[in-house]
């Protein structure tokens, strides 16, 4: 099991958190997504998966859902 933390900009509410979680869970072999919401800045997204996730893979998952950016 691989764990990774990503900094994501553009989350402003708990609805955004739900959208981000749903998008990342759609990536194959993701087991856990935890979001530490920072409404005034960059949020932390912790992901556990069977393989090492890259920022590009997270960004692709989020790109269809709004103005979320992995920084």
Q: Give the DSSP E fraction (strand runs of 2 or more residues).
A: 25-35%
Largest sheet: 4 strands, antiparallel
Q: What is the number of beta strands?
A: 4
The number of helical runs is 2
Question: How helix-rich are the residues, as a percent range?
Answer: 25-40%
Quaternary form: single chain
Give an overview in words.
This protein has 71 residues and is of the alpha+beta class. It has one domain: Alpha-Beta Plaits. The protein is built from two helices and four strands. It has helices at 14-25, 55-62, and strands at residues 2-9, 30-36, 43-49, 69-70. The chain has a four-stranded antiparallel sheet with strand order 2-3-1-4, covered by helices on one side. The chain is globular. The termini are far apart.
SSE diagram, text form:
Layout: E1 2-9, H1 14-25, E2 30-36, E3 43-49, H2 55-62, E4 69-70
Antiparallel strand pairs: 1-3, 1-4, 2-3
Structural features:
single chain, 71 residues, alpha+beta, Alpha-Beta Plaits, four-stranded antiparallel beta sheet, globular
């Amino acid at each position: 099991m691989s764990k990774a933390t990503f900094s994501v900009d553009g989350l402003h509410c708990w609805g955004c958190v739900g959208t981000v979680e749903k998008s990342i869970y759609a990536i194959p072999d993701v087991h856990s997504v935890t979001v530490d919401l920072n409404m005034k800045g960059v949020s932390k997204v912790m992901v556990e998966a069977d393989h090492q996730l890259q920022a590009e893979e997270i960004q692709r998952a989020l790109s269809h859902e709004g103005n979320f950016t992995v920084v």
